[in-house]
Specification:
This protein is α/β, with parallel strands linked by helices. It is built from 9 helices and 5 strands; from the N terminus they run H-H-H-H-H-H-E-H-H-E-E-E-H-E. Helix content is 41%, strand content 8%. The longest helix is centred in the N-terminal third of the chain and has 31 residues. The N and C termini lie far apart (62 Å).
């Protein structure tokens, strides 16, 4: 009995030493990035949930949906049962944001509440919860750099720092000419194509620094750079070609392409 207890205690000590050693290696790796974990949060907590009137954002600035967008609002709300117009809050807020140049003033939220016949506070809750809604003005091109783990290990910090220098902006800032807003963000869901950035509605993936320069210069010239992978991939397929479903099917009930294409 005593021998078993000693053996168990020894194993526990050994496991603890291994965990401490592993934690030390992780800490060293993180320190090598020379980045602070809180650097990805340019907005303070009160900013996320509190509105304060400014010259550009106050309830006295009128907002109305254009006739064309009002037709879209009615088409959206028609998809929901009577008495449940509030279910259309997210797409209608998105429509308001697009109409107002990429951000949501308080007056636009109030108009959404009126149109959907719901309390204003419910609209504020939605708009302040989802980071896709911008409650401050953004530039014509909203550049969002993902720095979550897959992108980070593929060089996202280098891309972010390169963009800071190229645009002359820090995290969360907008250029004086209103052309660019730069923001460091969490996962954008394109991990297989890391590193990547989102500019407005488009994803630019599999990036090198030269690709970033080319994309930014194209935008400055008023051009539209081709979105998606920038290294020749069509989507998220392996760079070396297909690695599965490359042989003949095991029976006649299954058919696979034989030309090697997706």
């Amino acid at each position: 009995m005593a021998a078993s207890m000693i053996k168990a205690a020894t194993a526990a000590v050994s496991a603890g030493n291994m965990m401490r050693a592993q934690a030390g290696r992780v800490g060293t790796a993180v320190a090598a990035q020379r980045r602070l974990l809180h650097a990805a949060a340019p907005l303070r907590g009160d900013k996320l949930f509190v509105h304060r009137d400014t010259e550009k954002n106050n309830s006295s600035i009128a907002f109305e949906f254009t006739p064309e967008n009002m037709k879209k609002v009615e088409a959206i709300t028609a998809q929901f049962p009577p008495g449940h117009r509030a279910a259309a809050c997210i797409p209608v807020l998105d429509l308001a944001q697009r109409q107002y140049g990429g951000w949501l003033p308080i007056s636009a939220m109030d108009e959404v509440a009126r149109v959907l016949q719901m309390p204003k506070i419910r609209v504020y809750e939605v708009a302040s919860f989802y980071t896709m809604f911008n409650r401050d003005p953004v530039g014509k091109y909203h550049v969002q750099v993902c720095t979550t783990t897959p992108c980070m290990v593929r060089g996202a910090y280098n891309i972010f720092e390169h963009l800071q220098k190229k645009l002359g902006l820090h995290n969360g800032e907008t250029s004086e000419d209103g052309m660019f807003t730069l923001l460091e963000v969490e996962c954008l869901g394109a991990c297989s194509n890391a590193p990547m950035i989102q500019i407005n509605d488009e994803y630019y993936e599999d990036l090198e620094l030269a690709d970033v320069d080319r994309i930014i210069e194209a935008l400055r010239k008023g051009e539209t750079p081709k979105p998606g992978p920038q290294n020749g991939r069509k989507a998220a397929e392996p760079l070396g070609g297909l690695t599965a479903l490359t042989s003949e099917p095991v029976d006649g009930a299954h058919k696979f392409r034989t030309d090697g294409k997706l």
